[in-house]
Amino acid sequence: MPGTCVVGLQWGDEAKGKIVDLLGDQFDYVVRYNGGANAGHTVVANGKTFKLSLLPTGVIRPNVFSVIGNGVVVYPPRFLEEVDQLAKGGVDVSGSLVMSDHAHVIFPYHMEEERLLENGGEGKIGTTGRGIGPCYQDKVGRRFGIRVGELLRPDHLRERLRFVVPYKNRLMQAFASGEIETLKIFEPWALADEYLRYAERIKPFVKDTSKLLLDALAAGKRLVFEAAQGSLLDVDHGTYPYVTSSSSLPSGIWSGSGVPAKFLTRIIGVVKAYTTRVGQGPFPTELNDGPEGTGERIRRVGREYGTVTGRPRRVGWFDAVAVRYTAALSGADVITVMLLDVLSGLPELKICTAYDLNGDRRTHFPSDAYQLERCKPVYETLPGWKEDITTKRKLAELPTAARRYIDRISELVGLKVSVVSVGPDREQTILV
Ligand code: GDP
Ligand code: IMO
Ligand code: MG
Questions:
Q1: Residues 20 and 60 in one domain
Q2: Which of 121, 131, 292, 299 is the most buried (most CB within 10 A)?
């Protein structure tokens, strides 16, 4: 088993972090290959809660080496903050965490650019505000992108910022139109000084990580790739334009870490027992049934508020059409069904099995946002269960209705269920 990928099959926050943590003992390396601090993973282990955005969740496991691959976009202050937070919690990552010299760097002007575009009225995506999109834009555009390795060469960095920052200031002035008073103007020398200070501290972590990973594979080490975001947020195959700016599907691994696909031998698709989404964009099974409704109840019980932004997550029924699509695209071998306990007490549960698009029945997911917005869900209704299931550790101990619900999800998605999660803690897990 040289390479395993843990990937979310919905719109993110499927509890991927918990699955990576559970696999921790079976792996030598844990690798992030996409996104940045827009991700938010909460892991509860032995009663302790760890919240990570930029670092892979695997860092909390002893004897696991953690890698931030070249496909990740890094905000250095956030990186240092997470390293310091872990140190306070007794987790020393100084010898077991590395970051690619090829990863791109997020600067404050990326966040400012994003703020101006998101607040500009039209065209809002509902992003996390972490500068992710503008940084990836600069990476692909080539002229303004700055990589982690460049932070380590002071004269070069000053020269780069002297060229980049005036362009950015002009660009933001153009975006700002009515907002001139609050527009931040950046000063290249000050930014260079600030980032050179970060560079001093991040220097020991910076490596050629693709070489490191290929060497590790050659030495027989086992790797787990931790996808950030969810497959429906993938820039190519997700609900564009309401997506993130990276390839969150396992297809991002080769480019985002340098590890060829032939080393991927197992793909674990993670789903919630229902669906959530943060930010704008179509969501056919969304529950908009008011403050006393099922949607609000699931949000409250599941604590469905974003880890990064604190925004209430939009909540809806399980969408088997969407998950069948992402399971196929991601090449998932199995699925893990998370947060099943949140549904306890609901009299009945719905699963979307098809869409109605202008009178046509569709069973294939239209990943185009325009069509998806026009899709009405076709539901199948299953009985709910009353019992608290958070203490169950075996499938056979679950109420019949809960087992039926899991079986039906498995049948509709076309994959076996390997894990059922009944609570946030590492222990609250049913291995099937
Ligand atoms: P990720 O981004 O995919 O890693 O997921 P998040 O960490 O953003 O969101 C998942 C949340 O659900 C976290 O707060 C977890 O602690 C919590 N969680 C994970 N598994 C379960 C579960 O089975 N039941 C409940 N109630 N919470 C869970
Ligand atoms: P994890 O790894 C849920 C969403 C944002 C927004 C869109 C684009 O915790 O599952 P961005 O800041 O990436 O440009 O925002 O993507 N988004 C996430 N939603 N979980 C995430 O990560 C997300 N990362 C980005 O809400 O709709
Ligand atoms: Mg999350």
A1: yes
A2: 131
41 is annotated as an active-site residue: yes
Q: Is 13 a catalytic residue?
A: yes
Residue 209 lies in a domain: no
Select from 38, 50, 339 the residue to mutate for testing ligand 1; criterion: most ligand atoms less than 8 Å from CB.
Answer: 339
Neighbours of 177 (CB within 10 A): 10
Residue 263: the pLDDT is 97
Task: For residue 276, give the ligand 2 atom closest to its CA.
Answer: 3
For the CA of 128, the nearest atom of ligand 2: 12
Instruction: Say whether both 255 and 387 belong to one domain.
Output: no
> What is the Å distance from ligand 3's center to 167 Cα?
34
Domain finish residue from 158, 177, 202: 202
- Write the pLDDT tens digit of every residue in 362-376: 999 997 899 999 999
pLDDT, one tens digit per residue, over 281-326 is 999 999 999 999 999 999 999 999 988 888 999 999 999 999 999 9
**11 and 59: one domain?**
yes
Q: The domain spanning residue 9 has which CATH number?
A: 3.40.440.10
> 24: domain range?
3-100+217-268
Same domain, 300 and 406: yes
Enter the pTM of the model.
0.97
User: What pLDDT, on a 0 to 100 scale, did the predictor assign at position 121?
Assistant: 76
Q: Indicate whether 286 and 415 sit together in one domain.
A: yes
Do 198 and 52 reside in the same domain of the chain?
A: no
Q: Which atom of ligand 2 is nearest to the CA of 280?
A: 27
Q: Do 378 and 281 belong to one domain?
A: yes
CA of residue 141 to ligand 2 center, whole Å: 22
59 lies in some domain: yes
Say how many Å lie between the CA of residue 339 and the centre of ligand 1.
Answer: 7
Mutate which of 7, 19, 43, 338 for ligand 1 pocket (most atoms within 8 A of beta carbon): 338
